[in-house]
């Protein structure tokens, strides 16, 4: 039952997404390995499309990922799965979270989790970029990669620059250098 | 009536929130603080701090807090459903289109560039997260160990995260100050 699977998987992703929308990427990556709902190339499209459309990136990734896995109903299940834990957590903690979040035990626990998210995301970054690199290290293809990646990274580091600018720049550079 | 009003206000917020997360706050400030006066500036900052310290999508947590503040549990549901409505419909309508144009040669080149741009965004996000959360010896060890575990075994992200949380909690309990405050 793919719809129940989508709901449960995105429910778990929503519960453990520490540090914003990109934090659900490790979970999407896990779904590729486990269920083959979409491919590693799809993951790029999922991230890019989620950045280009309005709305929270994490939710958009769930919607598009769910759609690729199981059509419109899949999109609904994945999206609802992702937002359910937030609703439960907020309704339960709305009154007390203000106090709890300052407790050192909570801070220390969350710091541990966030550190592991950092390690996971760096691993996923490598699995995404390594297949793009040509085996002949010194090649035109790799020079293009360095140029596009370098410019994109420089743009990405600019504070307050809308993220879709980075993606558009990547697309334009891809066309200019590719054609 | 109140719920419908809440839902509709967040439908409009969701439609304008490009880039999610923190951009939503700017829109909320003009729509809910200045126009509707449902929240004060101080409450926005307070809810934002609470939303980003909780797990989950920040914009969703924030909408849930605001909805809860206005009308309790049902208010939270109305606000969250509202904020996801427009993005949901937009993605579904684009999703069908993408498969149709995916074979155009220009788009193939564009997609190669986009792949690299997405990698750059992911690395940039990771760098920011590391700078904020990975400062002490203990957290550096956790990040490295998780990275190695990820590369060696394709395990679910859940296990390293749970173990890391547990280590963070234990390190507090036994007062080794490796995790900082």
Brief overview:
With 179 residues, chain A is mainly α. Chain A has helices spanning 2-15, 25-35, 40-52, 57-93, 97-100, 104-129, 140-156, 163-178.
Protein architecture, described:
The complex is a heterodimer of chains A (179) and B (181). Chain A contains 8 helices and no strands. The mean pLDDT of chain A is 90. Chain A starts with a helix and ends with a helix. Chain A has helices spanning 2-15, 25-35, 40-52, 57-93, 97-100, 104-129, 140-156, 163-178. Chain A has 179 residues and is mostly helical. Chain B is mainly alpha-helical and 181 residues long. Chain B has 7 helices and no strands. Chain B is flat. At the A-B interface, α1, α2, α3, α4 and α6 of A face α1, α3, α4, α5 and α6 of B.
List the helices and strands and how they pair.
The complex is a heterodimer of chains A (179) and B (181).
Chain A: H1 2-15, H2 25-35, H3 40-52, H4 57-93, H5 97-100, H6 104-129, H7 140-156, H8 163-178
Helix pairs in contact in A: 1-4, 3-4, 7-8
Chain B: H1 2-16, H2 23-35, H3 41-53, H4 58-101, H5 105-133, H6 137-152, H7 158-173
By DSSP (H or I, 4+ residues per run), the number of helices of chain A equals 8
Q: Rough shape of chain A? A: globular
What is the ordering of alpha helices and beta strands of chain B?
HHHHHHH
SSE string of chain A, helices as H and strands as E: HHHHHHHH
Q: How many structurally independent domains of chain B? A: 2
**What fraction of the residues of chain B are assigned to beta strands by DSSP?**
under 5%
**Assembly context of the chains:** heterodimer
Mean pLDDT metric of chain B: 86
Major sheet characteristics of chain B: none
Q: Strand tally of chain B, please?
A: 0
């Amino acid at each position: 039952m793919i719809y129940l699977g989508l709901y449960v998987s995105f429910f778990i992703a929503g519960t453990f997404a520490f540090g914003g929308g990109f934090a659900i990427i490790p979970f999407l990556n896990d779904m590729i390995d486990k269920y083959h709902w979409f491919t590693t190339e799809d993951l790029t499209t999922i991230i890019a499309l989620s950045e280009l459309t309005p709305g929270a990136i994490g939710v958009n990734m769930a919607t598009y990922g769910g759609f690729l896995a199981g059509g419109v109903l899949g999109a609904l299940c994945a999206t609802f799965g992702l937002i359910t834990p937030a609703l439960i957590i907020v309704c339960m903690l709305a009154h007390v979270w203000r106090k709890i979040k300052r407790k050192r035990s909570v801070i220390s626990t969350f710091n541990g989790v966030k550190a592991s998210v950092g390690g996971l995301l760096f691993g996923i970054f490598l699995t995404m970029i390594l297949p793009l690199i040509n085996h002949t290290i010194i090649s035109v293809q790799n020079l293009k990669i360095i140029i596009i990646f370098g410019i994109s990274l420089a743009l990405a580091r600019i504070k307050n620059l809308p993220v879709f600018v980075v993606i558009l720049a990547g697309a334009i550079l891809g066309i200019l250098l590719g054609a | 009536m109140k719920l419908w009003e809440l839902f509709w206000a967040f439908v409009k917020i969701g439609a304008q929130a490009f880039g999610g997360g923190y951009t939503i706050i700017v829109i909320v400030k003009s729509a809910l603080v200045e126009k509707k006066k449902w929240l004060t500036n101080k409450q926005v900052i307070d809810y934002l701090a609470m939303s980003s310290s909780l797990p989950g999508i920040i914009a969703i947590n924030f909408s849930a807090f605001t909805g809860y503040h206005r009308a309790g549990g049902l208010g939270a549901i109305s606000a969250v459903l509202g904020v996801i409505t427009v993005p949901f419909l937009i993605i579904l309508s684009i999703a069908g289109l993408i498969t149709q144009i995916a074979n155009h040669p220009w788009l193939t080149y564009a997609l190669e560039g986009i792949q690299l741009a997405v990698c750059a965004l992911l690395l940039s996000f990771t760098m920011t997260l590391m700078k904020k959360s990975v400062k002490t010896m203990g957290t550096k060890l956790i990040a490295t160990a998780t990275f190695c575990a990820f590369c060696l075994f394709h395990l679910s992200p859940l296990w390293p995260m749970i173990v890391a949380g547990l280590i963070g909690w234990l390190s507090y309990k036994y007062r080794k100050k490796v995790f900082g405050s």
